[in-house]
Specification:
Radius of gyration: 20 Å
Order of helices and strands: EEEEEEEHHHEEEEEHEEE
Distance between the termini: 29 Å
Length: 227
């Protein structure tokens, strides 16, 4: 499912690279009602199969760029699916990573993680600081790193770095880039400086209890790092 997408805006053509990685969360410790066991099985590093719930003797196979099995660590997910795209940021290109899936699939764990098992976001930000530091020493460039953090909940855009702010508008400029006027942009000088802003802001996110998760994220959260 890796593909090159050519986007024409009437003036120029832009090419982007899209890769799809699937992560299989560990099977839940409590028994399911029918005691049928896992319905998804990894075949290799790129393929998985899903049992047809109508007929357990049939399976459907899917191919992806990367398949991360139940035993895959946070570090392995980062090294294979995230770290390779980060150097492009220093070349003036946009790099995006997002997690998609139903409640309880493990999106927050993969993206945020814990203090003992940090996820994609803290690992990626730390790596960006490492890349900038290396460029600074080798080539004498002067870099500035800033962050913005927002959530989209009930069709409202909320600034997590300024929780008292009202619903923010979404705009598009002449180059088709998405802008959010009034969104807080904070310059950070180190990873610890980033953490000082990021952790309290994350606590401002909208959460609720579900059958699968006592503290489930109920909004879409977007962290923007600008170099």
């Amino acid at each position: 499912m890796a593909q090159r997408l050519t986007v024409s805006d009437g003036v120029s053509k832009r090419t982007s690279r899209v890769r799809v990685a699937v992560r299989l969360r560990p099977y839940m410790s409590r028994q399911d009602e029918k005691d049928e066991g896992p319905c998804v099985r990894g075949l290799d590093s790129q393929n998985l199969e899903i049992i047809n719930w109508r007929n357990a003797t049939e399976t459907v196979k899917y191919h992806f760029d990367v398949f991360h099995g139940e035993q895959t660590t946070q570090q392995e997910v980062f090294l294979s699916s995230v770290k390779p795209i980060l150097p492009h940021i220093l070349n003036g290109q946009n790099a995006s990573v997002f997690a998609y899936g139903p409640t309880g699939a493990g999106k927050t764990h993969t993206m945020l993680g814990t203090a003992e098992q940090p996820g994609v976001i803290p690992r990626a930000v730390r790596e960006v600081f490492n890349l900038v530091s290396a460029k600074d020493e080798d080539e004498g460039w002067d870099y500035s790193i800033g962050m913005s953090y927002l959530e989209i909940y009930n069709e409202k855009v909320l600034d997590l770095l300024s929780p008292n702010a009202q619903d923010l508008p979404i705009r598009e400029n002449k180059d088709k880039n998405i802008l959010i006027p009034g969104l807080t942009h904070t310059v950070v000088s180190s990873f610890s400086d980033f953490d000082k802003h990021f952790i309290p802001a994350t606590l401002n996110r909208t959460t609720a209890s579900t059958k699968l998760n006592q503290r489930s994220s109920r909004s879409h959260a977007i962290l923007l790092i600008k170099v």
